Amino acid sequence: MADLDIERIPALEASVDAQCAKGTYELDDNLLLLKLYQFFPEKANPAVIARVLVKALMHLPETDFLLCMYLIPERIATEAPVLPIVEMSNRLETCQFQAFWEELAASRELVDVAPGFDDAIRDYALGVVSLTYQVIDLKYLGEILHVSDAATLDQHVAKIGSREGDKVRVKLSDDNQAKVKEPDDASAVRADQLAKAMRAMAHVL
Prior knowledge:
Elements: H1 9-22, H2 27-39, H3 46-57, H4 64-69, H5 74-77, H6 82-93, H7 97-106, H8 108-111, H9 117-132, E1 135-137, H10 138-145, H11 150-160, E2 161-164, E3 167-170, H12 191-204
Antiparallel strand pairs: 1-3, 2-3
Helix pairs in contact: 1-2, 1-3, 3-6, 6-7
């Protein structure tokens, strides 16, 4: 278990700081650090854990945040500075974007350590919109993205579709279109079977 060497903790903590400063990302190193904190709880640094989670949030919809949470003791996850990030994650996972931005405003100092955080979350939100909508109100999209500037909002609109007045028409994909499964010959309902079923229902009614 050479990886679980307490001597590695300072270097891994420094790596987290470097990831925040340089905009890089080393998930394996971060998971190893959290595992070391499990084995040596007296060394666990909640501030570093919070930064690890911030970086993981920037990679939604990947499951990185969940992987990290599995390694974090409840006593740390339920206290500041980790708890606000967990709560923000819950908002994002349940697509409560307006509530997310409100909570973020109260905890801005936690994410400012990672430049590009807001844009990463907006990209995630745009991905959700593109999977969910064919047409969305422009004002509502602005609220989801927490963007009020018209020019900036238009830049985001261009990533997922086109603006039509006060609406945004999202590019069609397999995900945002209703799918009708074509029955194969074996499972197709014959006309006589359907008629028999309808007659049976009539008797019940």
